[in-house]
Amino acid sequence: MSEAVSPDEIVELYYKIEREAGDGGYNLNPDRETAMMLIEGLVTNIKRYGYQLCPCRLGTGDRKSDLDIICPCDYRDPDLDDYDACYCGLYVSGRVVGGEVDVKPVPERRPPEKVLNISAGEEAGEEDGEPAETEGIPVWRCTVCGYLCAREKPPELCPICKARRERFKPFSLG
Question: At 70, is the pLDDT very low, low, confident or very high (cuts 50, 70, 90)?
Answer without folding.
Answer: very high
